[in-house]
Amino acid sequence: MITVLDYGMGNLKSVTSALGRLGAECQVATDLAGVRKLILPGVGAFGAAMERLNPFASDIRRMAQDGVPILGICLGQQLLFETSEELGEHEGLGLISGRVVYLPEGQGMKVPHVGWNNTEFRPESRLGEGVSRTDQVYFVHSLVTVCSDMADVAATTDYIVPFASAVERGNVWGTQFHPEKSGEVGARILRNFISCS
Asked: Whole-angstrom Cα distance, residue 93 to residue 57?
């Protein structure tokens, strides 16, 4: 059973629909009792999201230490990090070392970054198993994650600058893109999370 956490700032319907199409058992929950796999969706600003997530933060950190598989999507990936500079300085969950910064504007490219782009997974990435470097996924974001340890970068995408479009640290995974909106490629990535233990 996969639990999609409802903390008031997630795109719950599209995530649960995508999981359902793949035959995964899933539930939307407002608590973390008995969670065996967790998805943190996210839409909105980092600081406001952490305010809503704070009641769950210590439990999420404990679950990560206990080996529970966790997937953060879009803002959900950003919340896995230590800090964010979005609209001020904010502390995150600290499950992955690094920070969240604004995409620089320039080179005639628009921010926010909205649309389809390639993402190149490292060959050893469990999350990206079966995804090729020509496959494209769907993004909607103005900020990116910067890992302190490059070993945590599961995939990179080049838009204005190269950035970590997916992260992977043990049982904690994240995607800056939306796999639930990324067609068959996104379905493959979600299947990899569904099948992980």
From this structure: 6
Catalytic-labelled residue, pool 86, 120, 168, 180: 180
Contact 153, 167 (CB under 8 A): yes
Query: Exactly one of 90, 113, 141, 178 is catalytic; which is it?
Result: 178
**Active-site entry in 74, 86, 147, 168:** 74
Residue 106: pLDDT band (50, 70, 90) is confident
CA-CA distance, 150 to 132, in Å (whole number)? 20
What secondary structure does DSSP assign to 121-141, as a single string?
Answer: E-TT-STTTT--TT-EEEEEE
Active site residue 91: no
Q: Can 105 be counted among the known catalytic residues?
A: no
Contact predicate 192/130, CB 8 Å = yes
Please give the Cα distance from 102 to 82 (Å, whole number). 15
| pTM, 2 dp | 0.95
Average pLDDT, the chain: 95
Q: Is 180 a catalytic residue?
A: yes
